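Quick one, T. Sequence first:
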Amino acid sequence: MTEEDEGQAHQAQRAPASEEADPSPSAPPPAQAEREANRWRTPAILWLVVAAVYVLTLGPRVTETSPDNHYAHLAQSWLHGQLHLLGDPPGTNDWACYDTVAEDLCPNNRWRFPDRERYRWYVSFPPFPALVILPAVAIAGVDVPDRLYWALVAAFGPALLYVLLRRLRETGRGMRRRRDDLLLTILFAFGTVFYFVAVQGTVWFAAHTVAVPLIVLYLLFGLDARRPYLAGLALGLCFLTRPTTAFLFPFFALEALRVSRRRGTPLDPELPWWKVPRRWLADVDFRRFLTLGLKFSAPILACGAVAMWMNHARFGDPFEFGHTYLQIRWRPRIERWGLFNYHYFGKNLAIMLASVPWLSQQPPYVLVSRHGLALWVTTPALLMAFCPKRTSATTVALWAAVLPVALLNLCYQNSGWVQFGYRFALDYMPLLFALIALSGRRLGLGFVLLLVWSIAINLFGAVTFDRAWQFYDSDPTQNVIFQPD
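Structure tokens:
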């Protein structure tokens, strides 16, 4: 039986069991159990293949502990029953210091204080990835080979993306062939910035390796508002990993609104467009919509409560994650403009859309800005999401989720620096792949050529980033975006 046949069988209504069948509800028929097992075979193989490639790309670094293993240190603190570090931070990169007496910032650009009870060091990044790595820290200690660990976690992202694309296909929304789902999965795994992120370890990239599988699970559970509790839990854990992903909530809201519509009178094709929303909403069962919304919101509120408790316990403010207390050179900029401000929009937009490789006549002949390359350079096939042949209610729901997260990231005080490509796009990139699947566009020879390009350039990034700095701009100021004259 092919996977397409299995998908059709999965969608078909199950016939009632005959009187001779085993009445036990805990024992599914052998044929059904075999079909369910087969449906997980391809995703499992994909995880193994992607994980193997990521591990091979790590090379000799596979047994290393990354220099900025903040989550391992946070997990170690939890295992010792506290929220602050056991001692001084092991490095000088993005650690938060809090003066417990003054209840304020520590003196900036200092990394050792004799009074450790007064000056406490914290991990300001949202905490869920620390829970993910906690079992490994409990076994191997804080020097666990986290590069390998996060590479294995990252491989779940493409494997789950395949399951999502298959679900779109089986429900009549997405690509019509299994080949298309596999091509998009390969593109995501090896032809996007996720590739270089997956083989780094370190706190900034580790957060993406955890968030991407959670985003895909959120889409899977949220499609047709099928699993509101699980969709809410996935999004709540996303918030505890990459906070801007909380603004993906419109996807579930619009899906819940759609499935809550009664089978009312079809919309009049002559109806003016400004009257369509009101007429469409007139057929919504708002009681069902509210029920779905409450189920979806409950785990999100629970995750938010955990974050607020941790923030209050550390800094006396339930809304302070700790970025205010970072010991970084950019503190004056944050104090003046804040963490999020339109002031940062122009620079971030230029990096997202216009940052290209620098060419020169001197070895190594090509350089990459430390702000990273534009999205269309690393993955040009993403442009397919912006020019669909057809649209649907699910397309609208996906765009309604993509836009607020993208805009929020563009207003963040950091572009993602230092990076090979614009990695903040990973906060919504699985949704862009779903939009490609829904676009109605054929994945022909042109797509295959773009796939080859994307894999080649992202393989270069995965191999060279943090290993061959001669290919990267050496500016330490964050002020240089384009190649100087």
